[in-house]
Amino acid sequence: VDAVAEKRGESALRILRIMLDDNEAPLKILFMLTRQFRIVYQAKILTEQGQSSKMLASVLRQPPFVIKNCLRQGRVYTNQELKYIFELLLEADSAIKTGKYHSRLAIELLVAKLVGNSN
To answer: Fewest C-beta in 10 Å: which of 14, 42, 66, 103?
Structure first.
């Protein structure tokens, strides 16, 4: 998740393949990615509204180290990019659940888009 959020493409894809080869459920990976980007987005928005890191930890019910990590990751994204990422996450979820793509392929395509995202 961190490799994806930090756009470390080669590392993210290598770790993803290891996880999938170890039979990690693609929907679980999608859930973890969605959760991470949701926290990144919420932390970014609340920080822009003047909230302190301590307040973020309380409001988002996350340990301070998670908030610190998410704030660092959020600096590389604009709000528009994060909204686009949520569209990609939703598309992948839909593709898996409707059978448009095999779940492994859908997750691999998603991660490739996320680490190469420049919108």
So the answer is: 14
